Amino acid sequence: MKRMNDSSERESLTEKHERNREQRITQIKRWAEYISSTPAEEWGPQLNSLVDSQLESARQTDISPAQYQRIERLSQEYSDDT
Amino acid sequence: MGDIELRDGTLFVGREPNDLDQLALDVTSVLQDCDIDHVLVAGYVAILAGRSRSTEDIDLILEPLTDETAEALAHELKQSGFWGSAMPLDELSSMLSEGTNIRVARDGEVIPNVELKYPSDQFDRASLDNAITARIGDESLPIGPLELQIAYKLYLDTQKDFEDAVHLFVLFEETLSTPELERWVQKLGVDETYERLQRA
């Protein structure tokens, strides 16, 4: 019975992730359609604000070169394994 | 009329440059001053083309350097306010030759950075040899051909890479060269992922 529950939970998780993935793709297509039909004065500042604020947050973590390299290496190893 | 288009082999980006673009422009300017062929590839190309995400590093492929040119590049980078955030720029030539990528950032910063590397396969080489121009503000950047960028993203096929491919494909579907895209899809053996992209 336990196994059945685990299996059904896994299926439910898979469905949820698939639904999330599809929603993200829909959102990306909407954004692409928006920027191809809207003047850059509208979408440019939105995009630049997103990029600049993420970089500013990253800068504020004050990460050391060694820490950054370690994160990058682990991230690469994870990507290679998956 | 979205102020972003691929026309006659040039990507026109109508928005103002952000911090990431400015880093790419500044490093590219140093490489141009040193007369070094180079090209920007991967995630940054998608972001330049309006993908709504950020990245901490910009991938840049450059032509293998002589010791003399490498020395001149290291000097110019330092003079322009950059440092090697992972290792000293003085080791640029030997590290690149050994296949170790070099990270260049503004003095004292780690993020964002530009990761310099030599071409290591036919796809890197093709990006370098077939670079197109991206225009942003009054400046220009060499970027890898979009058809190859999309196919390579399909090859990598992480969620982020597939989403980048969707963005570029949807945005430039009418102006991309389909034969060229499909040639790279075949070379990379990503036909199934390409079908998934077309259905997305």
What distinguishing features does this structure have?
heterodimer; A: mainly alpha; 2 domains; flat; B: alpha+beta; Beta Polymerase, domain 2; 5-stranded mixed sheet; 4-stranded mixed sheet
What does this structure look like?
- The complex is a heterodimer of chains A (82) and B (200).
- Chain A is mainly α and 82 residues long.
- Chain A has three helices and no strands.
- The longest helix of chain A has 36 residues, at 2-37.
- Chain A is flat, with a radius of gyration of 20 Å.
- Chain A starts with a helix and ends with a helix.
- The relative contact order of chain A is 0.04.
- The mean pLDDT of chain A is 83.
- With 200 residues, chain B is an alpha+beta fold.
- Chain B has helices at residues 19-33, 43-48, 67-79, 92-97, 122-129, 146-156, 159-172, 178-188, 191-199, and strands spanning 4-7, 10-13, 38-41, 57-62, 82-84, 102-106, 113-117, 132-136, 139-143.
- The longest helix of chain B is centred in the first third of the chain and has 15 residues, at 19-33.
- Chain B has two domains: 4-144, Beta Polymerase, domain 2, CATH 3.30.460; 146-200, no CATH class.
- In chain B, strands 3-4-7-6-5 form a five-stranded mixed sheet, sandwiched between helices.
- Chains A and B meet through helix 1, helix 2 and helix 3 of A and helix 7 of B.
Count of DSSP H/I helices of chain A: 3
Quickly give the structural class of chain A: mainly alpha
Distinct helical segment count of chain B:
9
Low-confidence parts of chain A:
none
| Number of β-strand runs of chain A | 0
Q: How large is the radius of gyration of chain A?
A: 20 Å
Largest interface: A-B, 36 and 33 residues
Q: Alpha-carbon distance between the termini of chain B?
A: 24 Å
CATH names the topology of the largest domain in chain B as: Beta Polymerase, domain 2
Task: Output the helix-strand order of chain A.
Answer: HHH
Instruction: Please give the order of strands in the largest beta sheet of chain B.
Output: 3-4-7-6-5
Sheet of most strands of chain A: none
Q: Averaged pLDDT of chain A, please?
A: 83
Q: Please tell me what the overall shape of chain A is.
A: flat
